[in-house]
Amino acid sequence: MRYRLRPDASDSIGPYGPLKRNSARQPLPRISLSDECPPTKLLYSPEIVLVSLDFQRLVREAVKHSEALLTLDPRQFEEFIAEIWHRFGYQVELTKRTRDGGFDVAAVGGSRATTRFLIECKRWDPEHKIGVSVVRELYAVKLHESATKAILATTSYLTSEADEFIDDHIWELEARDHEGVLRWVRDAVKTNP
C-alpha cells in the first residue's frame, strides 16, 4: 500500500534514496482543498512511501487475537491506522516519525462535505492509560490545524478524566481504545475485504 508522506519528512526514504532534509525548520503545509480539484485530492506533491506492514495478515490475527495489535511497534501502528482509514475511503497522509506536529495521520474525504480528521496514534501497553493531558494536547492541535475532528487511536485505554474531556467536546474529539480499534478493523474488513 502507498501513502502520502508530508514533504518535510526527514527520516523517510524516497524512490531514489534518502530524502533531503530541510536545514531550516519550516511549518508543515496544510492540506487545502479548492473547487478546482476533487474534494479527496491533496493539493501538494508529497513523497510516496511504501508501507511494509502486511495488513491482511494483521487483520486476520487481530480478529482472532485482540493482543495482535500489541505486536506492532509505534510506527507500524500508525501505518495500520492509516490503512484502516484508507479502506474507509479516505485520502490518507502519514506524518514523519518524530516531531509530527501533534498528529500521526490526516484523513481527508467526504462525498457531500469535505472532512479532515487528524488522528493521533498511541501504541501503549494496556496498563498505561491515556491521561487527560494527551487529549487536551490533541484538542489544541485540532483547533490550530482547523480540522473537522481529532481522533485518538490507542492500544491502551483512557482515564476517566480523558473520557470526560472527550465527552465535553463530542463534536470535535473522539477516541478509540483497544476495543474500539478492533471494531475499526472489523468495519474495514466489511467495507473493503
- The H/E string reads EEEEHHEEEHEHEH
Rounded average pLDDT: 77
Count of folded domains: 1
Largest sheet: 7 strands, mixed
Q: For the CA atoms, what is the radius of gyration?
A: 16 Å
Distance between the termini: 14 Å
Name given to the CATH architecture: 3-Layer(aba) Sandwich
Q: Helical proportion?
A: 25-40%
* CA-based shape: globular
Q: Please state the structural category.
A: alpha/beta
Neighbour order of strands in the largest sheet: 4-1-5-6-7-8-9
Number of alpha- plus pi-helical segments? 5
- How many DSSP E strands? 9
Low-confidence stretches: 7-52
Q: How much of the polypeptide forms β-strand, as a percent range?
A: 15-25%
CATH class: Alpha Beta
Instruction: Look up the CATH topology.
Output: Trna Endonuclease, Chain: A, domain 1
Q: How would you portray this structure in words?
A:
This protein has 193 residues and is of the alpha/beta class. It has one domain: Trna Endonuclease, Chain: A, domain 1. It is 32% helix and 20% strand. The protein has five helices and nine strands, in the order ββββααβββαβαβα. The strands form two sheets. The chain has a seven-stranded mixed β-sheet, sandwiched between helices. The chain has a two-stranded antiparallel ribbon with strand order 2-3. A hairpin with a 2-residue loop joins strand 2 and strand 3. The longest helix is centred in the middle third of the chain and has 14 residues.
